[in-house]
Structure formats: C-alpha cells, structure tokens
Design goal:
single chain; 336 residues; Helix Hairpins; Heat Shock Protein 90; 3 domains; five-stranded mixed β-sheet; four-stranded antiparallel β-sheet; 9 helices; binds adenosine-5'-diphosphate
Length: 336
Amino acid sequence: MLGYSSKADLLRADLARDIYVRSGDRSAVIAAILCRTETSFQTEVSWRRKDGLVLDVVLHGRRLSRPRRGEPLFEVMAEDVTARRRAERETAAALKLQSDFVSFVSHQLRTPLTGIRWMLELAQQTPGLPEETAQCLADARQSADRLVGLIADMLNVARCESGKTRWVPEEVDLAELTASVMHELRPQVEQREHQMSFRPDAHVPRVQADANLLRQVMLNLCSNAIKYTPVGGEITITAGLRGAEIWWSVRDNGMGVPLEARSRLFEKFFRADNAHTVETEGTGLGLYWVRRILAQGGGRVWWQPAPAKGGASASPGSVFTFALPLQPTLVQGVAQ
Ligand code: ADP
C-alpha cells in the first residue's frame, strides 16, 4: 500500500517524518484503547507513499482480548479511501460551481426584472387606458410576478445547497409566527374566497428555531394550500406538542395528491399531474427547499391525506405537517 519493497525497508522509514502527513486524532484514540476506556476506534489520517503520493486512509482498530506478556495488544486495519475522498471533493466542487452559477444568473435577472415590474405597475396607473391595453399590462405584470417568484425559489435552493443558508435557532412563538404568515397571505386567501383559520392546542410551548426560515416554511406550505384548493376552500392550521416535538400542520380540502405522486412530493422539481392542470406555472422547488431547511434544524416534514368531508367521492385534500424537536439538534450540510 505504501510502496515499500520489504518489511525491512518500511521499518527504516520514520513514521512521523516519512509516512504521516496528517495524523488526525490517532494518538488520542490509541491512548484510549491502551487505557482500556475504549475497545475499538476509527480515525482518518493521511499517509505519504514512498513515491510521494498522499493517501487518505481510514484506520479501523480494535483491542485484542488476550494481551501478550501482559502488554495490551491491538490490531489495526488501514482502508485506502483516497479515490472516494477525491470523488467527494469533486462532487462538492461541481455542486458549488452549479449553485454559484444559478445564484449569479438569478441575481443578474432579478434587478432588471424588478425594474420591469415597477414600470408595468406605473403604466397600469395611467388614467383612461383602453380596456385591451389594460388587459395586456395586467398579463405582463402577472408574468413578471411569476418570474420574480421563480427566481426567488432558485436563489433559495442555490443558497441552501451551497450551505449558505444557516439555521440559527432562537426562541420562537409559533402562534405569533403563524398569525403573521396568515396576515401576509390574507389577500390571496380573500381572492380565492377561502376560509383560513388557526386552531392551536391550549398550550403550545415556544420552540428553538430560526424564525425567518420557519416563516418561509410556513409561507410555502400555506401558499400551496391556497393554490391547490378550489375557490371557497377550507384551510385549517393546527399546532401542538407531541412527545418531545412541536407539530405544526396545515390542512386543506383541495385537490389532494394522487397515489403515485405521494412518495415524490419533496423531490427537487417534482410536480404532480393534477397540479399541472390547475396551476400550469410552478417550480416544484418549494417543498424540496422546505424539507432541506427543516432537516437543518433537526426537523422533518410529511404529507397525509386529509379525511374527506363530502362523502367517498370527494377528494381527500392534504395535510402537510412539520415537526421540530423542542431541544434543537443542529444538522449542517444535510445530504439530499
Ligand atoms: P410548486 O407549488 O411550485 O409546484 P412545490 O414544491 O411547492 O412546488 O410543490 C410540489 C408539488 O406538490 C406541487 O406541484 C403539487 O403537485 C404538490 N402539492 C404541494 N402542496 C399541495 C397541496 N396543498 N395540495 C395538493 N398538492 C400539493
């Protein structure tokens, strides 16, 4: 493995000078085994081969139960993980390049688009516009709004994937946060003539969470409930303590999720077929982002069918629930 021609050749090498490039916590873990506080260890180090090439190596060690001549004995297996580590570094670099590119393009698009939106809004205020012109302006404005939403989603996901979005916990009052989200969404709720209510349990303890990110999570789940529920729907938000977690749910009596789409809801870019027909525009990035962000705070999110109220033929609607631990467990760099 190290390219030495014989055992004697290897024994002439100086461990510290010729072989160990990075010794990690090797001394500490071996000391723990010798002091009998641990029976096994695993640690990662870097070794230099005789030809100078540096290897990433994982050492798996264990203490042998029968000491020889009273001396503790342990055996170590060295696993060469150089290729694996190189592939991981390359994947991380490619992901970073990709998300940097998306961030760059999104930023560049956002500024002129904001200008276009303002201009359209101003033009819409021109008195005495012919009906056809007013309609064209309204359509253009709606398209610009959609683009702004799309760019915001892309930026959010790019930031999250490149590890730039940090979950910084503070004490959060879920009822207060929910009320502010409902306030922000009131125009959309009224436009679609939905009834939206909040019915928390009698006692909802404060939770350690990132207030800004959690607000975005709630906004995402509630806007979906508004979008994917036919006009005049019923949307109910609940919150309460379940074991050592806080659960927060939004339930609608909308189109629900077809059976074949349920396991894919939180995948990047996924949109169910029934959603396409009602809302042709959409990115399929919202729920993906929600899942990743909650995972950073040690939480999770899932979907369940809402029990149908209008008999067996009625569509069941959706319940999206997220759970957060009362004691935060920060998980950085969550895998996909
Ligand atoms: P988008 O809304 O832009 O499509 P999301 O990631 O927020 O992206 O949602 C992904 C998909 O999940 C939606 O396209 C839709 O198929 C489904 N979905 C989300 N929320 C609901 C809901 N409340 N009712 C029914 N389907 C939903």
